[in-house]
Amino acid sequence: MNVTIIGSGYVGLVTGTCLADLGNHVVCLDLDQRKIDLLNSGGVPIYEPGLDALIQSNAEAGRLSFTTDVAAAVTHGEILFIAVGTPPDEDGSADLKHVLAAARSIGQHLRGFKVVVDKSTVPVGTGEKVAAVLRDALAARDLPDAGFSVVSNPEFLKEGAAVEDFMRPDRIVLGVDDDEAGQRALALMRRLYAPFNRNHERTRVMDVRSAEFTKYAANAMLATRISFMNDLANLADRVGVDIELVRQGIGSDPRIGYSFLYAGTGYGGSCFPKDVQALVHTAREHGQRLRVLEAVEAVNEDQKQVLVRKVFDAFGPDLAGRRFALWGLAFKPNTDDMRAAPSRVLVAALLRAGAEIVAHDPVARDEALHALRQDLAAEPALLERLRFADKPMQALEGADALVIVTEWKAYRSPNLAAMKALLKQPLVVDGRNLYEPEAMQRAGFRYLAVGRPMRG
Ligand code: UDX
């Protein structure tokens, strides 16, 4: 099928590339000429395992191309995905200006029936706003009857596993209108996604509003599990309980399950923080409060301070003359994404307290520097005390403690003896619970994890 993706950011590129790999002819549109030039010269603007090779092979096969030409891109697709950003407004609501601008461009160039798919995460009612913009644009061209139908098809992929998640979806949510155009759109969407439904029907068809809400509900539920465990982990630290044993103990109940119950430094990234805030905001707009989710957000903000608190407990609030090794900057492994990354809170706090930092991250170094320059724009001199190490172990030399923020694989089984020899004192503050407290104790470390107190 012919498919157009509007917005060649994270979700757009992954969606377009994977759909091309399934045999469709895909055109990815972006207004950013530099991004399109980079993609056309074989570069990839984001870090995502497996994506670059897939882009290359599908571009070479002639199934995937990149353009800034709006008219050509709109004409190309039977199905047009809107996959542009929805950054949070100052009040936490999702800013729809890019989504509605994309709808306007479609309306200005559309001829004949098109399926317009909202792939971006958008609040309830956006499908209707997109349809209104399209209708207005068509009326202005004297084409009120050129057909279209707006479909909501939220994306559930995780950064770092995006290609795999797209190619092996748990479910495909399709929100469609209950009219003739909606049924025509549904038939086309079913054809597009048929390869995923061969052995097992994964499609959930519903109305547009419910589909839009489903995406927020999924992320809000996962964020709730994380904040719940972080809250319990902080209590576990005080009452001598190992939260990891508790996780296993409760996860074995199939009603609970094991996943997304890891205590840590709080959730970050481009989705959970933004989507939780947006849902809280939608509720308030409708005269209701989502009290559970408001607490989820408050607990998460607080949890981003957990490593700062542990470092201050160990060294006091004045860190002048102290040096810390820091492992991991990205908000999670296998990505260079620094959006809402807990490391940003930690780095700023340690630098403000006078510390030196030697940080390591396998891929996020440039992104991290960029983010931290923004965070510390008013106090740029602080960054003079931040350095980067090329290898994890290099960061440890002469450091007062190692602080672990992101659970990259490379940090999972270090040589503890070498680690101890390099550190000035054997202290590890672990925001991701990577090691067994007993093993660390046996190796002679003081080990401060999240909800895993040392015994004895
Ligand atoms: C998330 C959703 O998983 C995905 O379905 C949606 O489409 C986008 O948002 P992503 O933000 O890429 O994906 O990462 P995810 O792996 O879900 O992790 C989110 C955050 O939660 C990370 O900061 C991670 O460290 C944290 N997390 C996750 C925990 O602290 N504990 C857990 O048990 C799981």
TrEMBL record:
Binding residue positions for substrate: F156, L157, K158, E159, K215, F260, L261, Y262, A263, G264, G268, K332
Q: What is its EC number?
A: 1.1.1.22
Domain named UDP-glucose/GDP-mannose dehydrogenase C-terminal: residues = 325-437
Any idea which residues are catalytic in this one? C271
Indicate whether Lipoprotein appears among the record's keywords: no
Alphabetized, the UniProt keywords read: NAD, Oxidoreductase
Pathway listed: Nucleotide-sugar biosynthesis; UDP-alpha-D-glucuronate biosynthesis; UDP-alpha-D-glucuronate from UDP-alpha-D-glucose: step 1/1
User: Which SUPFAM superfamilies does the UniProt entry name for this protein?
Assistant: 6-phosphogluconate dehydrogenase C-terminal domain-like, NAD(P)-binding Rossmann-fold domains, UDP-glucose/GDP-mannose dehydrogenase C-terminal domain
**Catalytic activity, as annotated:** UDP-alpha-D-glucose + 2 NAD(+) + H2O = UDP-alpha-D-glucuronate + 2 NADH + 3 H(+)
Top-tier EC class: oxidoreductase
Q: Which residues bind NAD(+)?
A: D30, K35, T86, T121, E159, K274, R339
InterPro entries with a match to the protein in the record: 6-PGluconate_DH-like_C_sf, NAD(P)-bd_dom_sf, UDP-Glc/GDP-Man, UDP-Glc/GDP-Man_DH_C, UDP-Glc/GDP-Man_DH_C_sf, UDP-Glc/GDP-Man_DH_dimer, UDP-Glc/GDP-Man_DH_N, UDPglc_DH_bac
One molecular function GO term is: UDP-glucose 6-dehydrogenase activity
Q: Which GO terms describe its biological process?
A: polysaccharide biosynthetic process; UDP-glucuronate biosynthetic process
- Entry-linked Pfam families: UDPG_MGDP_dh, UDPG_MGDP_dh_C, UDPG_MGDP_dh_N
Q: Which family does it belong to?
A: Belongs to the UDP-glucose/GDP-mannose dehydrogenase family.
UniProt name for this protein: UDP-glucose 6-dehydrogenase
